[in-house]
Each structure stands twice: as structure tokens, then as C-alpha cells.
Specification:
Layout lengths: L3 E6 L4 H11 L4 E7 L2 H11 L3 E5 L13 H4 L5 E6 L4 H9 L4 E4 L5 H12 L11 H15 L10 H11 L4 H8 L3 H15 L4 H11 L5
Parallel strand pairs: 1-2, 1-3, 3-4, 4-5
Amino acid sequence: MQPTRVLLIGRKTMCMEGLAAILNTDPEIDLVGRAAEWQEGVARAEALAPEIVIVDMVHCDECGPSNPSACVSAFTQSKVIVVGLPDADTGIVDAFEAGALGYLSLRGQSAEDIRRVVATVASGEAALDPRLSASVLVRMRRLARQSDGRMSRDATPTDREHEVLSLLVAGHSNRQIAQALQVSESTVKNHLHTVYSKLGVESRGQAISEAIRRGLAQP
């Protein structure tokens, strides 16, 4: 099995240096690049096409709590893990609502916890830190209930959309989905646009998380 390709975005604080060291010593993780600034990180993600982008929401001005959805929406081809503080409720939940799949705490997270989160997100599942405050978990449950009401019987994905969704959850890019289904990339994009609408989501990460949660596709 190939190691999971990871890009790390965040200034060289003590916490982020420790995180980078842990990622570098795991044979199942390939830290393909680092970026200290936001625009550099976006450019490197485009060039390196990592499976996972880890974004420090605390020390990155453009993607911090004032604009948490930016740390997800910029990476349409990668799964996103955000790094934050457990008591930053609004920012964390907003990032997950925007499509983030994983969360790492800047406070006392073990190397094993970090590896577990990366492995879980790489498989297409969501990974939350159990030490998040109760208010975060309450809001996450509320969002899940709201999401349940968005999909009516008429909005069930078609067989072809199920195929696209399954390949998406398996981690395939638009080009790989097009090759697997022997269609054009524009056709895949059209299918994804319809699937997003039916699931009531706005991003690739949200679609993966929602499809798994609803049992529409298996990781």
C-alpha cells in the first residue's frame, strides 16, 4: 500500500514543528510538502496533488476562525484536516460544515492520535477529537439532523450517480472517475453537481462525509 500523501500548511510554530516531525516518522505517511503561508499552500496543493491537506487554523490569518470555510473550499481535490483549539467552537464546526473531514488539537494530542486521524480521513471517514467541547458536538448533531431533512425521496441519486459517488468516496479524482466510467470529465462534473444538490452539500469533502453517513457509499 502506498503511503498517504500529505501537505502541511502552517507557520513554523513549536506545535506545527512537532506535528511535522510525527508525520515524517510514520512510514504510512508521505509528507510531500510544507507551506508557511496560505497562498503558497494553495499553490503547492495544486502542484503536488496531496491526498490530504492539513491546515493550521490558529496561525494562518486567511484561514483562521474568521474565515474557516476558506481552509476547505480551496482544496477541491484533497481531503482536509484542520488544526485548532478545542474551545474554538464556531471555527471548528464551520470548517466541518464546509467539508473538512478531520480535526487535530494543538493541545496535547499524542502521536498515535495524529496517525489515527490521518488514517481515518485517508479512508474517507470523518475524524473528530473526543476532547472537543460538548457545544461543538451538540452543534455537529444539529447539523446532521438538518442534513437528514434535505434529501427527499425524489432526490435519491440515480444508479450512475451512485457509481460516481462510490468512486468519489474511494478517493478518485474527476479524471480517474471519468476513466473508470468511460465518460468525459465534464460529464463527471455534471454528475457531481447534481449529487451535491441532492445531498444538500457544497463541496467534495461534504459529499464524501454525507454519502458515508447516509450509507450511500462505503469507504
